[in-house]
Amino acid sequence: MPDNPEINIHPAASQLATQLSRKWHVILASIFALIALLITRDAWLDILHIATLDEESSHIFLVPIIVAWLVHTRKQYLSTCKLTISPIGPLFIAIGWVLSIYGFYNAVQSFLHMGAILVVLGAFLTFTGLDVLIKFWPAFLVLGFMVPVPGLIRLQLSLPMQSITAACATFVAELFGMFIQRNGSVMTYNGVDVAVAEACNGMRMIFALLLVSFAFAFGTPLRTWARVLIILLSPIVAIICNVIRLIPTVYVYGNYNESVAEAFHDYTGWIMLLVALGMLFGIVHILNWLQLPVFPRKTGNPPSDAATK
């Protein structure tokens, strides 16, 4: 009998062991993330509370849907990701914990919220590893949209957008024969004053549209420059959608009672996201029609980030 017998492992047994190992990594990552979620539950409940009561932050409810979509579009990586216990997870946890403590003791709400997100993300990555972060980074990055935007930043961005939207909407409405008087961001039609901030809030649209643009850009096989262009054009698309939404909204406010107008305003806000998505598809097809290299080169391998450059 030889001193060092050669041990042959059956391929099926090796594959089973790998599958069991991956399964336990996912289970442990999920349990650890759930524990982190329970520990930071106050911050998460605060995010949910803000998203429910503040229309400016209602886009937060879209984030889980966008995350699921981005994971689905990269599902070809699910079976190839190398799952390991990684120090990247504890690093995220440490950064998140520092942000949470600083935000709590200094009343910086956005730091508290971002810290809670990083703690849960770090808990998940502890048992999945850097490879998962690299291959699914768009899905992880979009979690940042769950942090409610501070009021001061929101105000600085919304004021110029409201004035621009009101001016554009007044000009287009007059082309359709509507007589509108405008004073800053307030439009008067049939003796009814309609403020752009009330009738068609720019900030609620811009952050929701940024989410949709991000999902479209990274959920569609595009080259890197096209993805950047889509995201950069999203504020312009938001203004166009706000104008499209604002004109009939002003008409409804001027001809119907306030409850009907408010209902119209609320429902058209979500419809505009579909309009915006259609506009993004249109932009890509126009660029392709102009024979610009929008789409990655076709190869026999699954698409990767490198192939989109």
Write structural notes for this entry.
The protein has 309 residues and is mainly α. It folds into two domains: 11-148, no CATH class; 155-308, no CATH class. It is built from twelve helices and three strands; from the N terminus they run ααααααααβββαααα. It has helices spanning 11-39, 41-53, 63-73, 88-105, 109-126, 130-135, 137-141, 151-175, 196-199, 202-219, 224-255, 258-289, and strands at 181-183, 186-189, 192-195. The protein has a three-stranded antiparallel sheet. Helix 2 packs across helix 5, helix 4 (88-105) packs antiparallel against helix 5 and helix 10 (202-219) runs parallel beside helix 12 (258-289). The longest helix has 32 residues, at 224-255. It is globular, with a radius of gyration of 24 Å. Mean pLDDT is 83; it is low at 300-304.
Which descriptors would you attach to this protein?
single chain; mainly alpha; 3 strands; 68% helix
